[in-house]
Design goal:
Helix content is about 25%, strand content about 20%. A hairpin with a 4-residue loop joins strand 11 and strand 12 (about 315-320). The protein is of the alpha+beta class. It has eleven helices and 20 strands. An eight-stranded antiparallel sheet has the order 1-3-2-12-11-10-9-8. Strands 13-14-15-16-17-18-19-20 form an eight-stranded antiparallel β-barrel. A two-stranded antiparallel sheet has the order 4-7.
Length: about 450
């Protein structure tokens, strides 16, 4: 058994833990091979592999099938259409792709698996049969495509991503894979990601559950189901893709759009997700660490990709077995190994250089009723609002040209913060989503909703 590892930029102790984790995964998961990569700070910092074949092992350039991680690529293409103004996430599918029989479902619901569509196609197991058996959308959806009312719950749907792939083809006038290559793969330099396997690639295997025996799995072209699970890729390419999902790339999608993809758009499904599902991205948590990414499987292959934005670390794990090796869990463990052993250095503090852009009158302590809050001005011109105590609502705000601020996170996301001024130009109070923040608790000089008792504060007489 040979282990190939390229240690690029992690400490020796961390390397050993990473190697050990995938070695245990390959052994206990009884996988013919496993390959993994970690990306940090925008570059691949570690690659490793384990294999049952003597003398060699896969490296970060060997293709494996990635299954449902394909959905995240498809979601990126849909978000590009949204950013170009060719569709709205709230649009019903019928507006852009008429005649499917599922036209009431919105684009956002399809992305987040809340459209109520069936989990699988009718007929034979689509992952193990030729796509030619399902030549039309009607063959993918069947006579009764819905299992739940659209928008009522999260229910993972592979046919839903076939609809998104057909939507992309309708609006671009080109095949899904051709659009993907031109708009995502080539700009990001993912030249080892493709719809069909390209050498060197791993073969897909089924491992007998009760004996150390293997059998090759069939390799099928998924046809219309391709946008849900067709792609082949490498650990190195997927590591780069994970980094893109963390920080964006203006050639494909900007940082705000990939952040939107990573924001929960569906509630957790019991037993499936701990946090929820974004727009083509799974969300979970491990020991308090929030992770975004996706798992994937097709007969013969399992895959996992997770990123932690807070730690600026992502990991990919690929294996060529139908089941047994928990690729998604192992990828999450690799993120934790690097993030815990080598915590991210914070950016050096630097003073704000253009303080005249934001009036200092809004900084410091404020009171929402009797709740003590504080506003801080950050070096990038944004504001942070949070409680003085240990708990309470916190939010970050972006400065707008008209002198207001727009909430970017938390309870106040999308809400407008205004500094209301007196006739002499001084700040009277802050107005936020109908709440009045004053310099003193229930300041009688400010327009506190409901008014302030004229006798003011007093004890019990």
């Amino acid at each position: 058994m040979d282990e190939i590892s390229e240690d690029l930029d992690v400490l020796p102790g961390t390397r050993r833990v990473l190697r050990h984790r995938i070695a245990v995964a390959q052994s206990e998961g009884r996988a013919p091979s496993v390959v993994a990569a970690v990306v940090r700070g925008g570059k691949v910092v570690w690659e490793g592999s384990r294999t049952s074949v003597e003398g060699h092992g896969p490296d970060g350039n060997v293709q494996y099938r990635i299954g449902s991680i394909t959905k995240t690529f498809t979601a990126v293409l849909v978000m590009r259409l949204r950013d170009e103004g060719l569709l709205g996430l709230g649009d019903p599918l019928e507006k852009h792709l008429p005649g499917t029989g599922a036209g009431e479902v919105t684009i956002a619901q399809l992305l987040a698996h809340t459209g109520g569509l069936a989990a699988e196609t009718p007929g034979e197991w689509w992952e193990r049969t030729p796509g030619a058996l399902r030549p039309e959308l009607a063959d993918v959806l069947g006579d009764e495509p819905f299992r739940h009312a659209p928008g009522s719950r999260h229910h993972y749907s592979n046919p839903g991503y076939t609809l998104l792939g057909s939507l992309i083809e309708a609006l671009r006038g080109k095949p899904w894979e051709e659009v993907l290559r031109a708009e995502v793969l080539e700009p990001l330099g993912l030249d080892r990601t493709s719809g069909s396997p390209q050498a060197p690639h791993a073969g897909g295997w089924a491992v007998h559950p009760w004996a150390d025996l293997m059998m090759p799995e069939p390799l099928e072209d998924l046809g219309l189901m391709a946008p849900a699970g067709q792609l082949w890729s490498t650990a190195r390419d997927l590591a780069r893709f994970a980094d893109f999902l963390m920080r964006g790339d203006e050639r494909v999608l900007g940082a705000d759009s990939v952040r939107e993809m990573r924001t929960s758009a569906a509630p957790p499904e019991p037993g499936i997700a701990e946090v929820g599902y974004g727009l083509g991205i799974q969300l979970t948590a491990q020991n308090g660490r929030r992770l975004a990414g996706h798992s994937g499987s097709l007969p013969g292959f399992v895959a996992g990709l997770w990123l932690s934005e807070a730690d600026d670390v992502a990991a990919v794990v690929l294996a060529n077995c139908t089941s047994g090796l928990p690729a998604s869990s192992v990828a999450a463990d690799l993120v934790a190994v690097v993030a815990d052993a080598e915590p991210r250095f914070p950016q050096p503090w630097r003073p704000f250089t253009e303080s005249d852009q934001v009036p200092l009158e809004v900084c410091g302590p404020w009171y929402w009723g009797t709740s003590a809050q504080v506003v801080r001005l950050k070096a990038d011109g944004s504001l942070e609002l949070g409680p003085m105590g240990a708990s309470g609502r916190s939010a970050r705000f972006r400065a707008e040209p008209d002198g207001t601020w727009t909430g970017l996170s938390g309870y106040y996301a999308g809400e407008t913060l205004r500094a209301v001024r007196r006739g002499d130009g001084s700040v009277s109070h802050l107005d936020l989503a109908s709440f009045v923040f004053t310099r003193e608790p229930y300041d009688a000089q400010a327009p506190v909703p409901g008014g302030v008792d004229p006798q003011g504060w007093r004890g019990i007489g």
